[in-house]
Amino acid sequence: NVGVANNTNEITQRVNTIADEILADVERKKF
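Structure for Methyl-accepting chemotaxis protein, as requested:
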């Protein structure tokens, strides 16, 4: 099902983006 594949890819992309933002935030707050 192409629709499911596209949706899964979109979710994966969103998770990766959120993870990148969290990692960047952690780097900024390091002492």
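Residues 16 and 22 are 10 Å apart (CA to CA).
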